[in-house]
Amino acid sequence: MDIGIDLDRVRDLIPRYDKPGPRYTSYPTAPVWTEAVGEDDLRAALAERSTSPLAIYVHIPFCRSLCTYCACNREISRDVSVADDYLDRLAVEAERLAAIGPPTRSAAVAVGGGTPTFLDPAQLARMCEILDRHFPALLPAPPDRRTGTSGAGSERSVEVDPRTTSRDQLAVLADHGFDRISLGVQDLSPVVQKAIHRVQSVGETADTANAARELGFASVNFDLIYGLPFQTLASFEKTLDEVLALRPDRIALYSYAHVTWISKQQRGFERKDLPDASRKLAIFSLAIERLCGAGYCYLGLDHFALPGDALCRAADDGSLRRNFMGYTTGGDQDVLALGCSGISELAGLYSQSLRSSVDWAAALDAGRLPTLRGWRLSEDDRRRRWLIQRLMCQNEIWPDGYAERFGETLEARIPDLEEKLAPFLADGVLVTTPSGYRLSAEGRLLMRSVAMAFDAYLGDDGPRFSRTV
User: Fold this and answer.
1) Distance from C-alpha of 426 to C-alpha of 23, rounded to nearest angstrom
2) Helix (H) or strand (E) segment spanning residue 449
């Protein structure tokens, strides 16, 4: 299936666009947040919120072994009992947070890590009971008399490592309402797996996906990464063959972030044939063609889903959003995070918890909320965030929609906008439409660079990010 990407044209653009830039899972991005925004700000935001349902994120930091590509917050241990103390504190944190502000239900729960299935079945059950006690699930709406269908209730999703996940663990999660599962796959080439210290067979992946479906999980997602050491077009096409044979409902295809100043274990990847920007783009373009040719919809920057999936519906109706959990269907839903390093997003506030589980536990033991840093959004932040969200989720810049929403022209907010957008128009990254501008097929591969045009916090001396290509 030809989706219209001129890869030769994109290669010509690489020298101008391959530079460090944010992934825009938030705006402003986390590196500019400050420790001056802390526990009192989180308390105030919770006290001021309405009774509208929350999305809950739970961070489980533990992994049994280190995957050397990973830049996530994780702690390596083979002793599952360390999770007991962690769950003790998680219960305290949940109780403390739930007591601030009006009672509310959870419209969604996402559990990530680390490796949530580091927890054994009894520990997983305890985690679920903590959530149910303090943030009970939103019940489905009564059936519509005309159609007989019920409105959506809570959606619960969990990240799993097929190497450490048993059917008993999945059964516990299914019994507690989890209906979406995301399998860490990354790459199925043995050469690549050895380089990233994550050896995982196709059989292990298939067994976990099949068990989840048999237990009633409505959606199975695979996480893949392009740009890993020793990855080639031929090797990744074989991975795609094996993935498509298992037919996951969703696929998240992330660009490998080479951030050695954060993840020291990535040092040395350059000596393991780390793909350059040109090869990364070729691999990504191949994946887009193969996945779209197999019937998947290409959503946003790095997500794909089968038609009829909630992500596709959200893209169609404009409710698709991007946050620290990737692309979501929750619209402008508040997110409350539990666990070390978790990030809450509450109307005008971002709040991140202490990264170390030891520091996080110590703060809770001292009677505090374990806040590390955060950011209160200014009015300018809100408006620029709306523009970046629109670009990342709907692939467009919509001046009339902006003016209608905020009561000012886009040029009034960003006087040099025409100058900022001119190179993208000249390069064919953006094309004009009757309602504004839209990313071209090639531009969708470079959308992070376009989003940077709306970012007021970037500068030569600013924080370092992974490269945009």
Assistant:
1) 24
2) helix 447-451
| Ramachandran bin of 85, using left for φ above 0, alpha for ψ from -120 to 50, beta for the remaining angles | alpha
Question: What does residue 307 show for φ and ψ, rounded to 5 degrees?
Answer: -55, 140
**Which residue type occupies 104?**
T
Give the CB-side neighbour count of residue 395, counting CA atoms within 13 A. 21
* C-beta neighbour count of 7 within 10 angstroms: 16
CA distance 115 to 415: 46
Whole-angstrom distance, CA of residue 135 vs CA of residue 333? 15
Measure the CA–CA gap between 438 and 318, rounded to whole angstroms.
Answer: 15
- Give the tens place of pLDDT for each residue, 296-353: 999 888 899 999 899 999 988 888 988 887 888 877 889 999 999 999 999 899 999 9
Tally: H helices and E strands in the chain: 16, 19
- What phi and psi, each to the nearest 5 degrees, are found at residue 216? 100, 5
Q: How far apart are CA 56 and CA 157, in angstroms?
A: 10
What does the alpha-carbon distance between residue 251 and residue 256 come to, in Å, rounded to a whole number?
Answer: 15
Task: Name every residue whose Cβ is closer than 8 Å to that of residue 260 and which is 6 or more positions away in sequence.
Answer: 266, 267
* Site of tokens 């909630």: 310
Separation between Cα atoms, residue 289 and residue 6, nearest integer Å: 12
CA terminus-to-terminus distance, the chain: 24
CATH level 2 (architecture), domain 29-376: Alpha-Beta Horseshoe (3.80)
| HSE, side-chain direction, 13 A CA sphere, residue 85 | 14
Q: What tens digit of pLDDT does each residue of 367-418 get?
A: 999 999 999 999 999 999 999 999 999 999 999 999 999 999 999 999 999 9
Contact partners, residue 236, CB within 8 Å, separation at least 6: 187, 189, 226, 283, 286, 287
**83-72-80 Cα angle (round to 5):** 15
Within 196-343, where are the H helices? Answer: 202-214, 233-246, 277-293, 310-317
Please state whether the predicted TM-score (pTM) of the whole model is above 0.85: yes
Phi-psi region of 162 (alpha: psi -120 to 50; beta: other; left: phi over 0): alpha
CB 68 within 8 Å of CB 265: yes
Q: Same fold for the domain at 29-376 and the one at 379-454?
A: no
Choices 3.40.630.30, 1.10.10.920, 3.90.870.10, 3.40.1360.10: CATH for 379-454: 1.10.10.920
**Cα Rg for the chain, rounded, in angstroms?**
22
